[in-house]
UniProtKB/TrEMBL annotation:
Gene3D superfamilies: Winged helix-like DNA-binding domain superfamily/Winged helix DNA-binding domain. One of its GO terms (molecular function) is DNA-binding transcription factor activity. GO terms for biological process: response to stress. SMART domains: HTH_MARR. It comes from the Bacteria. InterPro entries: HTH_MarR-typ (IPR000835), MarR/SlyA-like (IPR039422), WH-like_DNA-bd_sf (IPR036388), WH_DNA-bd_sf (IPR036390). Residues 8-144 form the HTH marR-type domain. This is DNA-binding MarR family transcriptional regulator. It comes from Micromonospora parathelypteridis. Keywords: DNA-binding.
Amino acid sequence: MSDVPGAPADLLRSLTRAERLLSRRLGAVLADDALTIEAWRVLCLLADGQGHPMSEVSAEASLPPGTLTKLVDQLVDRNLVFRRIDPMDRRRIRAYLTARGRREHARLDERVRASLAELGISQTVALDAPQAAGLIGALDDLIDRLDPARRATPATRLADSTPAGITAGQR
């Protein structure tokens, strides 16, 4: 794309291509369960069990609030997610995984990991694939630099529960 190796255009092209190919691959894995990549992102974020305000879920899943509401409604209908009023701030709604949602997330996480293992991306990234762990760390750093609001918020990051299903504890 550029005559200069490592030019910004090359970075953008490579990141975009990798994201699209990974989304396509994981989308095929999730399609068997009628889940989208966006739904997977929401399930991964909620898998920490802490419950998250809808505004945070919207930001971390990169979905506009109206789209997120429709998606969460669908996940509620499937008994994967439930919503509760935040006990600390009654103006906010927090989303959580149901027991069934936790089981489904765990089951799908195994399938996603198996798909990634076929690519040579280890299930235990931190122990077996330091390059992959380094890449995830570098991407997290890039995201933090590009999104000052994220850097200022100590919220659990979606990157810590990436679409690849790799969690922070495994890095």
